[in-house]
Structures are given as C-alpha cells and as structure tokens.
C-alpha cells in the first residue's frame, strides 16, 4: 500500500507524520490507547512536552532539543487529527491560520509599514493588532483571551500586564512590597482560625502579589522559580552525596546534620565567586 510505503519512508517528512497519526487513530486497525484519547486527555502531555523543550534549551542540550521539538510537534499533529475527526478543523487549516496570523501581525515585514521601529514599539504594535483580533472575536474585556491553562504564575503576570495597560497598576515597587507585607501578615495572623480553603485563598493572594513584584522588577517568576527548584535539587543532591560518604542516607540523618551540609554546599557554590 502507498500509505505503508510513506510510513516507512525516512524522507517522508510532514506527510509521513500525518499518516502515522491517522493510522494510530484508525478505529479498526489503530492503537487501542491512541483511539480513545481526546483533547482533554492529550492536553496534559502537550503542556509537559512544552516544558521539556524549555528544559532542553536551559541545559543547552541541542540533540535533546531536536527530539523534544519532535515530541511537541507530535502534539500539534495529535490535536489536529482529533479536530479533523470531529469536523472542527484540519492540520492544513491550522497551518493556514497561523501563517495568516503571522503575516497580519507583521505588517512591517510583509506589508507597507515602516520597519524603522524599536523592538519596544513593535511589541506595542503587536499588542494593538492582537487587541483588534480580540475585538473581532467579541472579546472586548481587558482580560479576555488570557488562557486558563497557563501555569498559574505565568497567567498572573499576563493578567497584571493587561490590567497595567489601562492604568490599573501600582506606580512603583514600594507599594507592591507594602502589599506583600500586608498579605503575609494576614496569612500568619489568621492561620490558626481559618479553614483550609480560606488559607489557600490567602496564600493565593500572597503568590499573586509576589508575581506582581517580579513583574515590576523585570523578572519572569516562572523562570525564577524553575531556577530555584534546580538550585534546591543540586544542593540536596550535594547533601545526599556528603551523607553517602559517611555511609548514611537522608533517612538516617536529622535536620541539624542536613542543615549543616546544606550550608556547606552553599559555601562551595560561593567559593569560586570569592576567588575571582
């Protein structure tokens, strides 16, 4: 069969991948697992693959990035196949839509607009075009169109940026810091009398203001927290290594010993800085 030849053709390109996905979803001859998937069940994998792409970039692992980009591309193909089966859209319409969008959003490249603009001005123009697109979709509210599925810190920053464009923002970081102190004090003062739901609500308020501070300082809170997660991982692995040299594991240790090893690990990290 021509389809089989395409599937086994290493130079089959995008048509090959599309045919592979079509066959995987074939209700008679496809994979039982793939057949029962839908948009909702595949969405978590899509998010995971996007983060694995970001991880490969952070590690500057270009061979791994090549593979992760393929995994992410497969997610688009997967959703497009499900959409085609339901009659919502096709892979071709997805490609056409994004190509049209890129042309429309770059009139300074593909149209008659002047290219002699700063990056900041081009970002402002981009946002005006997106606002017009939202208006065309009956998304007239300032916060309309900020995806619900974004990571919470990322979505918080996007919501705050949208509100800031219409003047709903603190003028400087001092006001944000005051609000952090206020929210933290409320959480500490009320922790013994609030329900768990109310505590979670207060914690959410505090995290939202912390995201606001990061935005005012020009810091991506999602990236900052990822960096701290990695730092914590490296330091804790250092504790495990030091304990292993003593014939122990964390379960055999105690907080005082591990805290001392943690501080020693931090000192080792700072040593090169002092010698420079």
UniProtKB/TrEMBL annotation:
User: What GO molecular function annotations does the UniProt record carry, in alphabetical order?
Assistant: ATP diphosphatase activity
UniProt keyword annotations, A-Z: Hydrolase
Q: Which domain of life is it from?
A: Bacteria
EC category name: hydrolase
Q: Where is the NTP pyrophosphohydrolase MazG-like domain?
A: 37-110
Name any Gene Ontology BP term: dGTP catabolic process
Q: Determine if Hydrolase is one of this entry's keywords.
A: yes
Q: What is its EC number?
A: 3.6.1.8
* Entry-linked InterPro entries: MazG-like_dom, NTP-PPase_MazG-like_C, NTP-PPase_MazG-like_N, NTP_PyrPHydrolase_MazG, PRib-ATP_PPHydrolase-like
**Reactions catalysed according to its record:** ATP + H2O = AMP + diphosphate + H(+)
Family, as annotated: Belongs to the nucleoside triphosphate pyrophosphohydrolase family.
> Under what name is this protein listed?
Nucleoside triphosphate pyrophosphohydrolase
Which organism is this protein's natural source? Yoonia vestfoldensis
């Amino acid at each position: 069969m021509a389809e089989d030849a395409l599937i086994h053709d290493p130079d089959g390109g995008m048509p090959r991948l599309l045919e592979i996905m079509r066959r995987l979803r074939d209700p008679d001859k496809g994979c039982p697992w793939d057949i029962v998937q839908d948009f909702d069940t595949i969405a978590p994998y899509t998010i995971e693959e996007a983060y694995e792409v970001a991880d490969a970039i952070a590690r500057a692992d270009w061979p791994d990035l090549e593979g992760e980009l393929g995994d992410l591309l497969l997610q688009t193909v997967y959703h497009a196949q499900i959409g085609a089966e339901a009659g919502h859209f096709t892979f071709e319409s997805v490609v056409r839509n994004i190509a049209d969008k890129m042309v429309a959003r770059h009139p300074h490249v593909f149209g008659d607009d002047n290219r002699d603009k700063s990056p900041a001005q081009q970002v402002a123009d981009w946002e005006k075009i997106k606002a017009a697109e939202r208006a065309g979709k009956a998304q007239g509210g300032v916060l309309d169109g900020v995806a619900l599925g974004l990571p919470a810190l990322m979505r918080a920053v996007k919501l705050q940026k949208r509100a800031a464009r219409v003047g709903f923002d603190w003028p400087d970081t001092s006001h944000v810091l005051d609000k952090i102190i206020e929210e933290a004090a409320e959480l500490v003062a009320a922790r013994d009398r609030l329900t768990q739901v109310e505590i979670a609500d207060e914690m959410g308020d505090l995290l939202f203001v912390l995201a606001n501070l990061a935005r005012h300082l020009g810091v991506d809170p999602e990236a900052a927290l990822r960096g701290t997660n990695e730092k914590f991982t490296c330091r804790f692995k250092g504790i495990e290594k030091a304990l292993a040299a003593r014939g122990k594991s964390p379960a055999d240790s105690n907080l005082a010993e591990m805290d001392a090893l943690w501080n020693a690990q931090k000192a080792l990290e700072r040593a090169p800085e002092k010698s420079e």
